[in-house]
Amino acid sequence: MSDDRGQLTALALVCSLKPSPAPSSSALIAEHVLEHLRGAGVECESVRCVDHAIAPGVEVDMGDGDEWPTIRQKVLAADILVFSTPIWVGHPSSIAQRVIERLDAELSTKDDAGRPILAGKVAVVSVVGNEDGAHKVAADVFQALNDVGYTIPAQANTYWTGPAMGSTDYGDLDEVPDAVSSTTAAVARNAVHLATVLAAADYPAYE
Fold it and tell me: For 78, phi and psi rounded to 5 degrees?
């Protein structure tokens, strides 16, 4: 929890290949999730990962100008992680893969009860693209996030894909389809519910 009042916090890690200030569909759909989280009283922040020097590797700090340690502190402080990625050749972006590799370092980081440091935190995923593969991309990311300790709520993925081999982006839409907007709302609602439950009842201590 973020403070003595028990306010939940959320961090969006946007894994677009486009540096700021370029428009990003991955950033936009993540922001739509955050809008619903803010409506539920969650304090939210977003980081576009490509704007930062995230070194390759699987250590907490790779040194030599690595900016991941600063982002990591935000990750550890957040109750809810919103992981947002585009689809590229049927896979999460290369930035998404690098972030997942850096999160892998948390497998060896335990709390005082021997639990993974990320246990008790909630993760949801948003995906955009103009090719097929949203379910596969979400599944790959969910597995990685669960491996490092995150808990995945029911219906924790929202996505939009345009026509195959098309050029329309999520940000080009005049209006978000009802099915997508209702799913986005459900993702945020379920994330808040689960994060509230886990904040009140930790996982059992590891023996």
Answer: -90, 140
